[in-house]
Amino acid sequence: MGRLHFLREKKFYINLLIILALCGVLLWITFRLLDKYTRHDKVYTMPDFIGQDYNQVKHDYSKDFHFILIDSVYPKGQQPGSIYQQDPLPGSKIKKGRNVYAIIVAVNPEKTVMPNLKNLSLREAIGRLESSGLDVERLDYQNYSYKNNVIDQYYNGEPIMEGTELVKGSKIVLKVGIGQDKEKVKVPNLIGKPASETKRLLNLAGMNIGKEVYEDNDSLQYMCVRRMSPGPSSGSVNAGTIIDVWYHSNRTMNFKEEMQLLLHEDSLVNRPKPIIDTITETIETTDYEYEDDF
């Protein structure tokens, strides 16, 4: 008998079918248990917790997720204790019970010290304030020989000394020299610029921000400058001039078209008069002058 004689026996094939059937059943049971264990058939959409109080969210969703606090930050204008970032991101497809990692806005404000800005240029002074986590409240131009040099620094209406401890985000008034010639400054064109950059750009140009109007209710990150008053077509203004700004969402407005319209309006305002109009005005003026001779 050969080595493969068992292939001719019916019992071999019956046993083989039984083994295959058992393997199939075991695989089916294994995959069913895995689905149940991993909740493969239950997928959830990750809620948006950003801006909400961390402790309240943790209380409300404790049965659904396991929250892990990994860090705290000190962003400007954010509610202390609120969630600043989350992982997974809002809208992600997740399974119930997974870990949610959160970064929150620190409850206790971060401190910094006041730098010495006296005798620095305006641009350098603004840079040092930003490095220290402070902000410009207002530029107050004074009679001083050196243009855009910082004469003094004030906080809450009082002079503030170098090394004074302040809460990060505090606003400082800078007294700045206007220069001997008291030259005017050119209004920058900020149309289409993000709202987060507007104040800094105006300060660097030697101006102050005034009224800020938000024309729709979209998130601040989408807000851009739609209109300014005085606007870029005003040319030059006195140093320290207050500029009012109107914002609109770049998701609902085409700022490229808005810029083209603005440039067209500026070209009409600054367009040279036609020669025939100039001649007509000259003739009318001359006639008016000669009327007194008769």
Fold and architecture overview:
- By secondary structure, the chain is an alpha+beta fold.
- Among the domains are: 44-105, Trypsin Inhibitor V, Chain A; 111-183, Trypsin Inhibitor V, Chain A.
- The protein contains 6 helices and 16 strands.
- It has helices at residues 10-38, 54-60, 122-131, 195-204, 255-270, 275-291, and strands spanning 44-45, 66-73, 83-87, 93-94, 99-105, 111-113, 135-142, 150-155, 158-159, 165-167, 171-177, 185-186, 208-214, 223-229, 236-237, 242-249.
- The strands form 6 sheets. Strands 7-11-8-9 form a 4-stranded mixed β-sheet, covered by helices on one side.
- β8 and β9 form a beta hairpin.
- Mean pLDDT is 83; it is low at 278-294.
Show the helix and strand layout.
Blueprint: H1 10-38, E1 44-45, H2 54-60, E2 66-73, E3 83-87, E4 93-94, E5 99-105, E6 111-113, H3 122-131, E7 135-142, E8 150-155, E9 158-159, E10 165-167, E11 171-177, E12 185-186, H4 195-204, E13 208-214, E14 223-229, E15 236-237, E16 242-249, H5 255-270, H6 275-291
